[in-house]
Amino acid sequence: MPGTIGARQAGLTLIEVMVSLLILAVGLLGAAAIQLNALKYTDSSMMTSQASFIAYDMLDRIRANPDANYAVSNLQGITATAGSTAARDADLYDFKNNINNFAATDGSGSIAVNNRVVTITIGWGDKRADDATTANAPTRTFVLTSRVATDPVVTP
């Protein structure tokens, strides 16, 4: 009967190996989920930054030409073409074109002017934000408000 009494186990059993692999698999799935969320938030942040660039570009154009009327309620209201010679029309055409290139059919934009205070609003569908399909993607907006020139009629 040698070997039965006082025998010590050497190595790992199959159950121990399987439990270790299960723990490793759960850890790897968690790391993958974190990576996917980071990708999603990076894309949303990039879209917000792009909207910010478009809005600030338009605000600079309005500041360069403060006497023109830049008020538009939506992108469809912009009828200017690529060959427009008037600065206002060329600026609005570029604004519309930038939003369409940035957000395609999900994009929206408006410019409100009230006593030289300009509010530029840009909207887009962010389908990655909530893992939604394009049809019901949440709408994100970027709003920029600034005074573009001192109006001699209005006293601050």
UniProtKB/TrEMBL annotation:
Membrane-crossing residue ranges in chain numbering: 12-39
Residue span, Type IV pilin Tt1218-like domain: 33-70
InterPro entries linked: N_methyl_site, Pilus_4_PilV, Tt1218-like_dom
Matching PROSITE patterns: PROKAR_NTER_METHYL
Annotated keywords: Membrane, Transmembrane, Transmembrane helix
Any Pfam family the entry gives: N_methyl
Family matches, as NCBIfam families: IV_pilin_GFxxxE, type_IV_pilV
Protein name: Type IV pilus modification protein PilV
Organism: Pseudomonas asplenii
